[in-house]
Design brief:
CATH class of the largest domain in chain A: Mainly Alpha
CATH architecture of the largest domain in chain A: Orthogonal Bundle
Strand content of chain B: 15-25%
Order of helices and strands of chain A: HHHHHHHHHHHHH
CATH topology of one domain in chain B: Rossmann fold
CATH superfamily of one domain in chain B: P-loop containing nucleotide triphosphate hydrolases
Low-confidence stretches of chain B: none
CATH superfamily of the largest domain in chain A: MetI-like
Number of helices of chain B: 8
Strand content of chain A: under 5%
Oligomer: heterodimer
Helix content of chain B: 25-40%
Largest sheet of chain B: 6 strands, mixed
Mean pLDDT of chain B: 88
Low-confidence stretches of chain A: none
Radius of gyration of chain B: 19 Å
Number of strands of chain A: 0
Structural class of chain B: alpha/beta
Structural class of chain A: mainly alpha
Shape of chain A: flat
Shape of chain B: globular
């Protein structure tokens, strides 16, 4: 990469524009905490510049720089609409600096909630995957069950898991287990369907290749069919993961005592919109982080694909 | 009477397509001696690949029998190494792991720790040393087939079944692969040579490699003639193709292949 490609990026201009906007006089009647916004933006910019010097891969750097650019634009528009020109109701829409300040104040509480949410999601997700993948392999591989299972899966996956919540509350011991159960259902059907469609799509030539090597039945399922349908399985997992996050927040809004969904719900009930928006943004960033890690895992496991 | 390594007798295979059964192979009989290299040639649709799937154990015949060492063939088995036209290798394993997997399946006496060493040995033999940690998708088509041959040889089976292994390879690399296979096969001592059944539609390929050529005709697939290849080994392509005998022999095979077609679609009117 040339120096020009490394450091001459539009994102840096956006950063300067964001800082210049902060020089405009505030019109909001509420506290806006501009210094927090500036510190945050400078922090992001320092990270981006440090990464620009270190990162070798052009695409990875471009991804980081583009995300930073997006953050700058969001912050600029947001601060113009709130602190600077007060277009929006400043009770419902706090200024960005105020949200960042709130995050700093609440950070210990927020991290505990993130941990709790991630633990719930991970439990439901892993449990669902651990059951759905082997079951999908087995059912998809047995020609007889395969076609019936496709329709049965369609039937169950069309029911939004949220409607099971009353049953979960009635039957399961804790609210926490209800949340895990909802995530489990949200993940199970897409992963099961993805695995089955993967199995049904495996090239017959690959199966013949395995057969002439006399592989045993478990080997056929786990060393041949499983890797051959891995891409479809990941498609199902991705789908399950995004639905999980949507449902997690809803699930935690019912009866939970921690988690990001609880945090958002709790403070919006009190009309504390600064904390509500802080919570929503944190959820968004957590989802981005998890998606990023998951994509890394997918790339690693599918590195043999052309 | 000498017993053949592979004995095919009155083999009949029916294919079911769209609920209609049709006769893919009808009363096919021929034998393959131990250490013999036999090619099966014929126009497309003559059932030559079907014949090989039966030998691979992937397809059950409707009638007749296939015996290996005097024993009736049942299903797949690791005493037969197979090279397909596509996907002989698993795309999610490196070439080395693919070969190790083959060794694990066929040679139970080989210790786990020795498999990698044997795999590398055979990769070197086919000219792929240094490519062990590559995935098949990172190799060219020709290199993939080299690796597939390396696996089949590393499995150390007495029989090798090859289903148009070089058909999808560009002409230049195809020639190189044919010469590699010839060298590796002829390289073994007379008593240790593998018994090979090689399916192809390339006449020159069949002549260069084989001891014997089985010519099939289509609809239904039957044996038109079994021809012995009259050229001494070791063979070299350049020396072979120059000779007058080669041209004559090639024409004989061509006429066996095409007379049949001419008769079928209207005899004299067809000009070849």
């Amino acid at each position: 990469m040339t120096i020009k490609k490394r450091y001459l990026r539009i994102a840096h201009l956006l950063f300067i524009a964001l800082l210049l906007i902060q020089l405009l006089p505030d019109q909001s009647t509420k506290a806006v905490y501009t210094s927090y916004l500036v510190r945050f933006a400078v922090g992001v910019e320092v990270i981006v510049l440090a990464a620009s010097a270190i990162i070798k891969k052009e695409e990875s750097l471009a991804l980081l720089v583009d995300i930073a650019g997006f953050v700058y634009v969001l912050l600029a528009v947001w601060s113009l609409a709130t602190a600077k020109y007060n277009y929006l109701n400043d009770l419902l829409f706090p200024a960005p600096g105020k949200v960042i300040h709130q995050f700093v104040v609440d950070k210990d509480k927020i991290f505990i909630n993130i941990k709790s949410s991630l633990r719930t999601t991970l439990k439901g997700f892993l449990l669902a995957t651990a059951i759905a993948v082997p079951l999908g392999l087995f059912v998809g591989w047995s020609a007889r069950l395969g076609s019936a299972a496709t329709y049965i899966t369609k039937f169950f996956s069309s029911i939004p898991p949220i409607v099971y919540i009353p049953y979960g509350i009635a039957l399961l011991p804790t609210f926490k287990s209800v949340s895990v159960f909802v995530i489990f259902l949200a993940t199970f059907w897409p992963v099961f369907a993805g695995t089955m469609s993967g199995v049904l799509g495996v090239d017959k030539k690959i199966i013949d290749s395995a057969k002439v090597l006399n592989v045993s039945k478990p080997e056929m399922l786990f060393r041949v069919i499983l890797p051959a349908s891995l891409q479809q399985i990941f498609l199902g997992c991705n789908q399950g993961l995004s639905v999980s996050f949507i449902l997690l927040t809803s699930a935690e809004m019912i009866g939970a005592k921690d988690g990001m969904g609880y945090y958002v719900k709790y403070y919006s009930d009190f009309g504390d919109y600064t904390r509500t928006i802080t919570g929503l943004l944190v959820i968004g960033f957590v989802v981005i982080g998890v998606t990023f890690l998951f994509n890394k895992l997918q790339k690693r496991l599918l590195r043999w694909k052309p | 009477m000498t017993t053949n390594k592979i004995e095919i007798k009155d083999l009949t295979v029916n294919y079911i397509e769209n609920k209609k059964s049709f006769n893919a192979l009808h009363d096919v009989s021929f034998g393959v001696g131990k250490g013999e290299f036999v090619s099966v040639i014929g126009a497309s649709g003559c059932g030559k690949s079907t014949l090989l799937s039966v030998l691979e154990g992937l397809y059950a015949p409707a009638g007749g029998s296939v015996q290996i060492d005097g024993k009736e063939l049942h299903g797949t088995g690791t005493e037969r190494g197979v090279v397909f036209q596509h996907y002989s290798l698993f795309p999610w394993m490196t070439t080395r792991k693919n070969i190790e997997f083959g060794i694990k399946q066929s040679r139970h006496d080989v210790k786990r720790s020795e498999r990698a060493k044997i795999a590398d040995e055979f990769l070197t033999k086919v000219g792929l040393s240094g490519f062990g940690s590559k995935y098949p998708s990172q190799l060219s088509g020709g290199m993939q087939q080299r690796a597939a041959i390396a696996r089949a040889l590393a499995m150390n089976t007495e029989i090798l079944l090859m289903d148009e292994p070089f058909s999808a390879i560009d002409p230049k690399n195809r020639v190189l692969l044919q010469e590699l296979l010839l060298k590796l096969w002829e390289g073994d001592g007379l008593d240790e040579r593998k018994t090979v059944v090689f399916v192809t539609h390339d006449i020159d390929e069949a002549i260069l490699l084989s001891d014997k050529i089985v010519v099939l005709t289509a609809h239904p697939g039957t044996v038109n003639e079994v021809v012995n290849v009259p050229f001494d080994r070791p063979r070299r392509r350049d020396d072979l193709v120059k000779t007058e005998e080669y041209g004559k022999f090639r024409n004989k095979l061509l006429s066996l292949l095409y007379n049949d077609i001419a008769e079928r679609i209207g005899g004299d009117e067809v000009v070849l």
